[in-house]
Amino acid sequence: MGSNSSSMNNIPNAEQLVQETGFSAAHILRLYERFQFLDKDDTGQLRPEDFGAVRELAMNPIGDRIISAFFSPGQETLDFASFVRVLAHFRPADSNRTRDGAQPEPANSSMRKLKFAFQLYDQDRDGKISRAELLQVLRAMLGMQVTEEQLQSIAERAIQEADFDQDDAISFDEFRKSLEKVNIDHKMSIRFLS
Ligand SMILES: [Ca+2]
Ligand SMILES: [Ca+2]
Predict the structure, then answer these.
(1) Which of 78, 82, 90, 119 is most deeply buried (CB count within 10 A of its CB)?
(2) Could you say which ligand is closest to the alpha carbon of residue 169?
(3) Which domains, ranges and CATH numbers included, belong to the chain?
């Protein structure tokens, strides 16, 4: 069992996942193989430590945060469907066509990506990035290259530029506005498949 799994039939809710995430069937199949590879003890569930085998995450300075974003608060396991739904945030957008608003947003829309990115900073999930939360991420990403003073001043400048209502924290709306000119698709494209 489980050794020859290269068929969509073996994947629970495969069709629904294709519809929901915009991944192709072939892509879902590859992700399933990837999932099974990570699922070392073959339980159909991943735990945070299973992600240690994803080299790109192991080498990412905020890899731990990205991994914990896969898991709902208080949850320590992840099934295949949830795995795919989170990975859809990292799927590059198909095109720039405008949406008519009648369809649900695909998981890889810029807004959903921004929300996912915001969550990587907002660790206490109070809807705001505090100065301390910003510093934690900057320290993780730049810690080796800059001094603590430089870190403080980078954080200070980032808050000053984004904090329109001057409450000394960055709300999601402020985050979105300050990143409007950044190509979030490019920044959020993480390759999970080798
Ligand atoms: Ca917060
Ligand atoms: Ca603010």
Answers:
(1) 78
(2) 2
(3) 1-91 (1.10.238.10), 107-189 (1.10.238.10)
Alpha helices, DSSP H only, in 51-183?
55-58, 63-69, 80-87, 110-121, 131-142, 148-162, 172-178
Q: How far apart are CA 153 and CA 159, in angstroms?
A: 10
Taking the centre of ligand 2 as the mean of its atom positions, its distance from the CA of residue 4, in whole angstroms, is 53
Span from the CA of 66 to the centroid of ligand 1 (angstroms):
16
In the chain (194 residues long), the average pLDDT of successive 10-residue segments reads 61 90 92 94 94 88 89 90 89 56 61 87 94 92 85 91 94 90 61 52
Q: How many CB atoms lie within 10 A of CB 78?
A: 24
Dihedral, CA of residue 49, residue 50, residue 54 and residue 58, to nearest 10: 10
Segment holding 128, helix H or strand E: strand 128-130
Query: How far apart are the CA of 21 and the centre of ligand 2, in A?
Result: 32
20 class by beta-carbon count within 10 Å (0-12 exposed, 13-18 middle, 19+ buried): middle
